[in-house]
Amino acid sequence: MVKKHKDRPDSGSANCKDSKVYTDTFEVTEENGGDIQMPMLKTVLIVEDNEINRGVLHNLLASAYQVLEADNGQAALEVLQSRHEEISLILLDINMPVMDGYTFLSHIKANSSFSSIPVIVTTQSDSEADEVSALSHGASDFVPKPYKARIILHRVASIIRLRETAAMINQFQYDRLTGLYSKEYFYQRVREIFQQYPERQFDLIASDIENFKLINDILGVAAGDRLLQGIAGQYRQMVGDKGICGRLNADQFVCLLENNKVYTADMFASTLEQVNALPNAQNVVMKWGIYYVEDRTLPVEQMCDRALLAARSIKGQYGKHFAAYDDKLRGELLRQQAIIDGMETALSEGQFMLYLQPKYRIRDNKLVGAEALIRWNHPIWGFQLPAEFIPLFEKNGFIAKLDQFVWDKACSTLREWDEKGYLPISISVNVSRADIYNINIIEILMDTVRRHGLRPSRLHLEITESAYTEQPAQIIETITKLRELGFIIEMDDFGSGYSSLNMLNQMPLDILKLDMKFIQGETGKSVGQGILQTIVELARRMRLSVVAEGVETKEQLDRVAETGCDYVQGYYFAKPMPIQDLEALLKERRAAELLVEDNDCIAAPHFGMRLRPLRQLLLIADVDQEYRKEVEKTFSRHFQVIHSTEADSTLTFVTQYKDQLAAVLISKSLPGLDGFTVFEMLKDELEVWNIPVLVTGAQDSEAEERALELGAFDYADKPHTAKSLLKRTLKAIRLSSFQEREHALQNEANRDHMTGFLNRRGLEAAIHTMGKEDTPFAFCLFDLDDLKKTNDTLGYTEGDRIIQEITRLIRAQSRKSDILARYGGDEFIVILKQIQSADVVVKRVEGICRALKKNTFEQDIQASASAGIVISENLENGMDEVFRQADMALYRAKTNHKGSSCLWRNEDESLQGFKENARE
């Protein structure tokens, strides 16, 4: 809630020179979270002893800001005492009587009420030493005299915006609904408390509401929200000043208290009675879990998970209100932790072993390759199958290091066999999503094959089909580069996903590996044989080879052979085996002379690789050769400098090196096209890549104004020294990085971390951007059925897998222009813009619901989602009514049959009418 007070006159301080300044104060109240007052004013305080300079600055800023003045540091401190909440920025002179600028800086940085106000130092000196001194005393920026109007306004606006962004990010510390700490900030505060009080003992207590989803369904979301707010109030009352509390997820709360070993059932029963006395509570059942903090080296997230595990262990047990994290739960986690603790040692001591499963060519039954698999031969536990440790490694990122071990071992094995004169086969290795996202995979793979003297095509890279569906753009770009370098790309588990055929045309592929379950489930049916035949024919037209994996019987082999499949692997031929066993097979079939001539086993030509420069590039576009040499001499310590002398080459360099450029220096008088024209042609690309531009030229106020209007960071009058130009350039790069971080923070604040969809805040912002051109639109509200039950019985890992799967399905059925949001823990909103037909929307939604039902999850999980759909053209009254209608349609879909969808027709229609329109 925002309250705006009436304008009020200046406070009347004797040190405040402008007695006619009026201000507004905005008070932001966060419901159930207390009042948070935040200054929203853009008021600038000028601290300058020279009256003429003060006047110049006042006149420059008065049109855009409210201005206060002080003639020395002491007077400025007195202004801050009474008006610091209003002040957004301080312009500070260094050399002043009574109190100089440096002393003033030390005072404000020592005062927590003033320290967050940014300060721009203004001084007659332009020396690097003065700038360093000002920044070391806490200044945000440094501007030399004489003042340049556009530069001053530009710097002031940028720094105020950065401060406001920081204030906005600070608000994310609190949960919007309850006012308690958000999950991430709660974790941070716990870590800080542990550091502050190392000698004290603490307990983490987490709670979970049984069947909270039912409360939302019966009483409505608003009533559920009010209940959560009431419980948050109970937590505040219970914890008081003895600890801190936060909201973890929808109905899960947690608090940190000083250790109290004596917890009784009466304590929690009394708290539950108080909860049920709340206006919106009806037979609420809560369970609490306690984790006694003994090992502070554990991540706080893991401590909270342990408390929640304890709470979930007593779900459904009548009369039992709390449980402590015990040995049984500890045993399960200790096993996982032991695996994690031992992984580095296992890798260094050679406990991980490479196993190879042979791959045969069907037409002549020749061994042409193998798939690399990993086994862990633990000195105590014995052989561990990948299912035991790979999922953990994928979560903690160790999988990237393990994959690199496999790559290197596979290449060294191939090299050793080549030297022995064996069959020059290929080995397929796995490339995980973590490899693509977290390491410089291209350089690592190229370095690996080069060290062992192999062609890239000897190493086949297996990418699972599901990996393509999550962030296809990034994966496709990386895989395309690897394929151009000569690596052979295989799509693993083809046929197990939902969008296989739709995605094939986009993928840079050489080989399809048909999923084992697909072959086993379909080859016994005539229709299945037809599907298999169709896929192989499609692969032929796309010039792809096909590998059938998981072939276990002679019948299966005959069927895949009939379809024209190229290669096969499976238990019918051989199980995965140690390297020496496969080498024995190669010895038995020593036919290297014949197979060398076989094109299927000869590597593709090697393509050269252009590595990214180690230093960032700086482009200087100027016709003056001596000027360019002087600039390069000064800048070479920081950048690799590239030159351009005319418009065409400038355009070429920017488009070619845009991802490597740190900045561009461009003369306004380039031959061919002037610098301004070139700048305008490149403006969009420069902004996208966040490349700062400095325009250089003769002193010209109109040219300077035009450059800044176009978006240049600065205009440097000629003549100038290369050293001063370097300082300006470094400052431009520094500010650009701030702006990039600002954008990233804002984007992160609007995104759901797990799915990448918009969160509630992002959804609201996206809806505000919708216009008449987006109508008619479809508002689709999805709800995962019984997700809470899955979380409670099988854990959040399994629940998260269902969330990720419906995320993938929704994304596959949506366009880039559509709005995709995760509205709550198990609710998703999809807004399809410019729809042509309601039937098309219904079919899409039905397809998503059906696909989720058919999906096979571990532990026999039956996942389903229900959906409510509204078609609307009304944007004038917001989305509240549309959301209400979608929620009603969703409710009626669930009433009819979970896993179905319902299209809203008319509020007056009977329930039967909705049932008739509900589709499974």
Describe the structure.
This protein is α/β, with parallel strands linked by helices. Among the domains are: 2-171, 3-Layer(aba) Sandwich (Rossmann fold), CATH 3.40.50.2300; 183-325, Alpha-Beta Plaits (2-Layer Sandwich), CATH 3.30.70; 617-748, Rossmann fold, CATH 3.40.50; 760-917, Reverse transcriptase/Diguanylate cyclase domain (Alpha-Beta Plaits, 2-Layer Sandwich), CATH 3.30.70.270. Helix content is 46%, strand content 20%. Strands 14-15-17-18-19-20-21-22 form an eight-stranded mixed beta barrel, surrounded by five helices. A five-stranded parallel beta sheet has the order 5-4-6-7-8, with helices on both faces. It has a five-stranded mixed beta sheet with strand order 10-11-9-12-13, with helices on both faces. Strand 6, helix 3 and strand 7 form a beta-alpha-beta unit. Helix 2 (73-83) runs parallel beside helix 3, helix 24 packs across helix 28 (722-749) and helix 30 packs antiparallel against helix 31. The radius of gyration is 33 Å and the shape is globular. Mean pLDDT is 79; it is low at 1-39, 591-615 and 908-920.
Outline:
The chain is α/β, with parallel strands linked by helices and 920 residues long. The protein has an eight-stranded mixed barrel, surrounded by five helices. It has a five-stranded parallel beta sheet with strand order 5-4-6-7-8, with helices on both faces. Strands 10-11-9-12-13 form a five-stranded mixed beta sheet, with helices on both faces.
| Uncertain segments | 1-39, 591-615, 908-920
Percent helix among the residues? Answer: 40-55%
Structural class: alpha/beta
The amount of beta strand, in percent, is 15-25%
| Average pLDDT over all residues | 79
With strands numbered from the N-terminus, the spatial order across the biggest sheet is 14-15-17-18-19-20-21-22
CATH topology of the domain at 2-171: Rossmann fold
Oligomer, anyone?
Answer: single chain
Count of individual helical segments: 34
User: Mind telling me which CATH architecture of the domain at 2-171 this is?
Assistant: 3-Layer(aba) Sandwich
Number of strands: 33
